[in-house]
Amino acid sequence: MRGRRQSGIEILLGVVDRLIEAPGGAAVAALAEGLAVPRSSLYAVLRPMLAAGWLEAPRRGMVRLGSAWFDLAVALEAEPAAAPYRPRLQGMTGPARSFLWNPGFTELVDAGPFARPPPHVFGFSNGSRANLWRQGLIHGVQFAASEHAGRIAALRIAHADDDAAAQARDIDAFRAMGVDALIVSPLETEALLPALARAGAAGLPVIMVDRLLGDTSHSLVQVVGPDTVIGRLPAQWLVETLGGRGSVVMMVGDPEIGPLLRRARAAREVFALSPGIRILDTVHTEMTVASGRRAMAGLIERWGDAIDGVWCDSGLHGAGSIQAWVDAGRDGRVPPHTGGDQNAVYQLAILHGVKLAAMDFPPAMGIRAVEAGLDILAGRTLPRRIEVHTPLVISRGCETASVRADVFVEDHVRWDRPPSLVLGHGMGEDYDPTTFAVGKGAAADGGARSVLRTLDILVWLKAHGGEAGIADLLQAVAMPRSSLHDLLGPLAGHGLLQRGGRGRIRAGPRARAAGFAAIGIADLAAAAEPVLDRLARSAGGTAALAVLHGERCTIALARAASGAAPGVPPIAVGGRTPVNWTLAGRLLVAELPERRLRWLLAAHARPRRDACRPLTLPELVAAIRAEGGQHVAALAGEAGPDLGEAARPIRGADGQVRAVLLLRVPAADLPTARSALDALDLPDTAAPPLPTDPVTEAALP
Questions:
Q1: CA 203 → CA 73, 115, 206, 375, 586, distances in Å?
Q2: CB within 8 Å of 24: residues ≥ 6 apart
Q3: Cα 215 from Cα 537, distance rounded (Å)
Q4: CB atoms within 10 A of CB 639
């Protein structure tokens, strides 16, 4: 194709073909040369594919097929399941406790004088970008403006970067521009008061967010976090967890920042009302994991075993505190902690058996500030002070008499996101600060739009059983029918899609090939299909190939004998279960290195509903290790009262378990099934490419 300009769709199809043949990945430079396209054109296709999960970048300058292809490949045969409802604000909806429990009344603001028709121009004066939490707040403002693009024509942002004089100039500049509403996350200094007074005198509605300046006269509305509750409830939990007696240390970020000052004051009130609690020491940190680690190392050196509990106003340094205890050889014996916000503190608490109570200081305040601005410009009545709700998160089994969990740590943590992620952001399950972008790029050219629409079609098919009608696709990709047919032509001709009857579109054979290549089992799947057919027929049951995908045991292929015994349910392709729930899942992970196995189980094991008592992490590791290493394993009763399962690991040339052959039969036929698996002659297969974990223990602080 050299010498001819290729369309974005042609480049996309070429990338998929080449990566099917190179499942371990290919260098971007080699792809550009092999496809005879400029790197700029190639990157225009790779970027949206990476963002949507159709490609992964195991290292800089390298790409490979993403696991989304495997999800699409099995979607056609998998039982359709309703997508779980995920509220946009992830638990941040509803009024804050401070509103519900306030014994006084709430001051209301009549915004009628500020009403004006949309579209509006918003200004955002941001005082600081000093830590990861601030990044979440900024992204929240941008996200909300994008969500309300029909009513917000433009969002203009100015960052003062901790310079009070610069922020005062920014506020004056926004007033001069004539923005319709101004959101201010202020530096806490009186130097801003004259500029804010000039904005108010000009009739510009000001919405303060996160921090405040003295009384409420400097803004129309204040959007804040429940600082007092964040300090008080975890402190009360700590008191009750210690039985009302013990010595605690306090880790406070910056005592001159209002929200942190209020949290610490509330916690000290709780401790003062508990005569048996002694505050050994208070240290101030820079609101980072590294500073928390250094500060706690010093406290351990000074106080050692005298420390019974650790109160942190934020997990930004709470994660560093837990790590310091682990460094000191206290893994499994770390004192109870408080402090939310950062994903790392939840991950570390689970990994090291730390009792934790936390409330995230929600960056979703940025979203709420934009919504408050829209309410003002619509002339609605709203509270003068809006506190954004945040859930109380407690380690499972660690609730106390007066402090109960809204959600458990084990359900709140995000193992599929980096430790640095700040939670409570309100931007949905897929938010990642490292790839955050607003919208899809309205300025993209026609070729780029075709690529994006192709990816939209693939996402739609993946979510709807691998098949959809033309009418559904028209709605999903928002394009004319004629344009959709023009787009489907080359995709179907390539085999990525295929046309079904009555106007249906299905995932095609190239999508299936890409799916198996994406998880490194293309060769294995081809070899396993006839084996599964023979096994199912010979044992009179159902046979399947199970792999580890997305940290769960996933059925990649399955076959059922035509004369299968009654009462033997089929094994659904695409079915995913926690690795500890099934014999196949346990065999897939039993021989993993210790740290990897411990991390995976801490992140993804789930108690079985029929378990008498959930196993602790050490007990679960030991039980799975004991079950591994068998040539063929067999177990009756786990899949059903009258069912048995036999399983045999398939190893790569490196000796590592790549997949598991599974045979389900009536319990009485289990010896026959075990013999059938034992008699198979399975040569070693090539080792798959190593997966890149979304979170690894090396990435933890």
A1: 58, 11, 9, 16, 65
A2: 64, 520, 689
A3: 78
A4: 19
- Per-residue pLDDT reduced to its tens digit, 44-82: 888 888 877 788 888 888 999 988 888 888 776 554 443
Separation in Å, CA 242 to CA 183, 216, 249, 253, 618: 42, 39, 13, 24, 24
Distance CA 447, CA 48 (A): 12
Residue owning tokens 């296709």: 45
- Parallel, antiparallel or unpaired: strands 407-408 and 392-394: parallel
| C-alpha 496: how far from chain center | 29
Q: Which of 478, 472, 528, 505 is nearest to 683 (CA)?
A: 528
Contact yes or no for 409/349 (Cβ under 8 A) = yes
Angstrom distance (rounded) from CA 359 to CA 323:
20
> How far, in Å, CA of 512 to CA of 232, rounded?
54
End-to-end alpha-carbon separation of the chain, Å? 48
Measure the CA–CA gap between 283 and 303, rounded to whole angstroms.
Answer: 13
Residue 223's pLDDT is: 94
Report the distance separating Cα 486 and Cα 180, nearest Å. Answer: 43
Dihedral class, residue 424 (left if φ above 0, else alpha if ψ from -120 to 50, else beta)? left
Residue 244 zone, left/alpha/beta (φ > 0; ψ -120 to 50; rest): left
Q: Which two tokens stand for residue 238?
A: 């700590």
At 36, list the tokens. Answer: 């005879």
What DSSP designation does 566 have? T
How high does pLDDT run on average in the chain? 84
Q: How far is CA 606 from the centre of its chain?
A: 18
Q: How far apart are CA 393 and CA 146, in angstroms?
A: 30
Q: Report residue 449's pLDDT band, with 50, 70 and 90 as the boundaries.
A: low
Amino acid at 104: G
Question: What token pair was written down for 477?
Answer: 């990709």
- Outline where 148-190 has alpha helix (H): 164-177
Helices (H), 401-521: 409-412, 446-463, 470-477, 481-494, 509-518
Q: Would you say how long the chain is, in residues? A: 701
Per-residue model confidence as pLDDT tens digits over 619-635? 888 889 988 888 899 98
Whether the predicted pLDDT of 195 surpasses 80? yes
Determine the Cα–Cα distance for residues 142 and 550; give it in Å rounded to an integer: 30
Asked whether 80 and 465 are in contact (CB, 8 A), the reply is yes
**pLDDT interval class at 571 (50, 70, 90):** confident
d(CA 500, CA 490): 16
Determine contact, residues 646/674, Cβ cutoff 8 Å.
yes
pLDDT band for 515, please (50, 70, 90 cuts): confident
Pure H helices in 273-383: 289-303, 315-327, 343-351, 365-377
Structure-token pair, residue 522: 């293309």
The sign one gets for the Cα dihedral 82, 88, 90, 91 is negative
DSSP state of 644: E
For 667-680, b where at least 16 C-beta lie within 10 A, e where not — what string? eebbebbbebbeee
CB 152 within 8 A of CB 138: no
